[in-house]
Design goal:
100 residues, mainly beta, 4-stranded antiparallel sheet
């Protein structure tokens, strides 16, 4: 007999998202880390201040940490100038997605 035990929701426990001084470059990329409550699949969307998406990174974590790396370039290989925003969307590997 097995018990019906609901899965626990995904939660963020810590984040290290400090910007790179003078902006990210290939030799010194932005390397944010988010600690979540369990392994996940994730999408990191980077956008200009006006909301135009410039890069989308995806991954799967086998542990609770989400680690990404961005070199400051758009999907098309051109350099991003100015400020940008990010949105991390993560989903537990055993349930629905959540946005942090």
């Amino acid at each position: 007999m097995t018990a019906d035990v609901p899965t626990s929701p995904l939660a963020q426990t810590e984040a290290q998202t400090d910007p790179v001084p003078s902006g990210p470059v290939t030799s010194n990329p932005w390397k944010p880390v988010w600690q979540l409550s369990k392994p996940s699949t994730w999408t990191l969307t980077l956008a200009t201040g006006t909301g135009t998406v410039v890069r989308t990174l995806t991954g799967t974590s086998t542990a609770a940490a989400v680690r990404a790396s961005w070199d400051g370039y758009r999907q098309d290989g051109t350099r991003v100038n100015g400020n940008y925003t990010w949105t991390l969307t993560a989903g537990p590997r055993d349930g629905p997605r959540a946005r942090t």
